[in-house]
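Quick one before lunch.
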Amino acid sequence: MIKRLTLFVLLLYCFNANAQTTKYSPTADNLAARENFQDMKFGMFIHWGIYSQLGAGEWVMHDKNIPYNNYKRLADFFNPQAFNAKEWVAFAKRAGMKYITITSRHHDGFSMFATKFSPYNIVDATPYHKDPLMELAQECQKEGIELHFYYSLLDWGRPDYNFGSPIVNGKPVNGDWDSYIKFMKDQLTELITKYPAVKGIWFDGEWERHSVNWHFDEIYGLIHKLNPAIMIGNNHHLAPIDGEDFQMFEKDLPGNKTTGFNNEQSIGALPLETCETINGSWGFNINDRNYKSVKQIIHYLVNAAGRNANFLLNIGPMPNGKIQPEFTDTLAAVGAWMQKNGQSVYGTRGNIIPPQQWGVVTGKSKMLYVHILDMPEQPYIFLPLFKGKIEKVRVLADGSSIKYKQVPEGVFVYTNNLKADPNDTIIQITTD
Ligand code: FHN
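Model of the FHN complex:
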């Protein structure tokens, strides 16, 4: 009995020791990448694939019950001749975006890049025969835009994944889980080693089978071994797990639980990002006219920054590779706003005071930016908790001074006589 107990204690020790030694500790390069990531604040999310041809979003195969073998025919005529990486990157830059996150493979399993590990890819299976992600990566590198790859863990078509299968002992029944994990590792190795400018991997689809063994320790370990600075995020809608470098929220500002995606998500200590669609769809949807206004997008971005999160705004390009004019017009206007007001967003951090009814505060070294998104009826706003010494309070747009009063509980900033900006009235507070 004593022998058995000793053995058990020994095993327990080994297990803990193993857990401790394998705990992820980010490198200095990775920590620097995290800071840079937070400085960028605004990114472009792109959902583009063979599904774009049906103009009904990226879930069309699943939603319309299209059998996989029929759906696959979409590849036979996917030929985005009008795709131009230069135009996309220039468009993102004009919008004030600092990085692009694009679908390399979505749930339909189609690889939008050249891969040796599946014939179902844009180079081998379509008449296009070119790799748009390579063109995009090269252009991003040239233009100083970061590139992140969205990568779906869920696959509706591969037999080794066996979509819909029950999970027993961490594996799908009648699938070949080891083969699927190996396949993903091989593809991720390609994405990380072949494409310049790649700085992040954005996983999605874990939520389809929470009980399977995803081998994230091995997958994340491999990615960080290939490039320790790569930022790994996983849209599993849960608190971050070991090995991840940022935490994302879907269609909600961090802390909000309005869409059902983030109900079980607490906010962790990693850099934050929230993603949202420019209309109501991720992939191109010809019938979706639910366009967000310039003001709504500015508010989303500013509200995210005030909560210390990046904003990843999605567009679904058309199947020919062009971006529809409703999106380009809106984003040109957002870009013009960022040109004037970007200093109050880029490089800032949030959560300086809790979000208020009138708006949020961002800050950078000695500067605070008070974003009044909804001008209150009373002639002042109050910044609770603020204790530092104030040197100046000015309107960012024209530099005019504003009256304020500091009390032990915070600061009153007087908003009467203030010319309100319809999008965001920004007040700059210089502190000592
Ligand atoms: O199912 C996907 C969806 O198609 C899209 O990619 C979004 C982006 O956040 N994520 C998934 C749902 O969580």
